[in-house]
Structures are given as structure tokens and as C-alpha cells.
Amino acid sequence: MTYSRTHGxxxxxxxxFVVYATVVGCAAAIGWCLVPILGAPDQNKKxxxxxxxxxxxxxxxxxxxxxxxxxVNVRLERQRPFRKSLVxxxxxxxxxxxxQSYGLWYMLExxxxxxxxxxxxHGFVFVFAILHGxxxxxxxxxxxxxxxxxxxxxYDHEYYWGVTVCAWFWHVLGIVWVAILLVxxxxxxxx
Length: 191
Description:
By secondary structure, the chain is an all-alpha fold. It has five helices and no strands. It has helices spanning 3-38, 52-75, 79-110, 121-151, 161-189. It is elongated, with a radius of gyration of 19 Å. The mean pLDDT is 86.
């Protein structure tokens, strides 16, 4: 490997780290700002579905549509709309993480442990949501990677496999999120 090629990979890795750290930082800052704006829940022992989950679900669907549009655009060799769709989906993903973080905080704050420190079904449901969040951070890292590669002209009408995999990963996480919401719904009905 020549110096310039190795140097190019190092520069890309640094760019990937900086952009991903910025995305995570923005999501954390927005989530932190939502706490005083939207407020804390009343503490009770009943499991509640945070209203923020409805907003985050809409952001997930919106991001999914944007990724589908990105695939359509790259197939038609429309690079500028392709990149705009990827950047917009990155923004939607960042907002999803922010709103989802607020929703998880809201759910945790609403759950008051019983006298033995147990949260019962609250903890079970919370773990599902956290696991989804971990998987979504991987999806966001993948989306940052694909977006940065798109600005390096990596994808065109002949090669867009990375974009397709990224979009399908996002779609699958959306389906998993719907399943988690169903678990929340049934847990709420039976508590």
C-alpha cells in the first residue's frame, strides 16, 4: 500500500469519527434540551408509554422513506438528490436518537421502584428499548459511513450495494421498533 492510499484511509477514518461524534453530540444536546422543554412525568407505579415514542416513530418512518428515495436517486444517477436524501436521513436519525433518549429518560423517571427496589415489567420493557437503541447507534454509524462515501463518489447506478444494505438495516430496525411498541402496549395493558 502506498503512502497516499494509507493517508487517504486515515483521513476518511478521522472524518468518519468526527462526523459520527458530531451526530451523537447533537443527539445528546437535543435530547438534553427536550427535558426542560417537554418536562418530566408524574411519578407513578404504572408503566406508561412516553408520548415521545410517537414522535420518534414518525422520525423512523420518515428516515426510512428518505433512504428509499436515496436508493431510487442513485439508481437513476441523480447524485445531488441522492446525497441530499442521505444527509436528510442522517438528520432524521439524529433527531430519532434525541427524541428516543428523552422518551427512555421519561419512562425511567415515571417508574418508581417498589419497596425492594424492583421495577418489575418496567425494567424488562426498558431493556428492550435500550437494546434497540444500541442497534440503532450501529445503524447511524453505518449511515454516516455511507453518506461520507457518497460524497467521495463511491456509489453510482452500477454500484450502490452499501446504500441498499444501510436502508434495509434501517427498515429492519423500524420493524423491530414496532414489535417493541407492541410489547410496551401489552405490558401496559397487563400491569
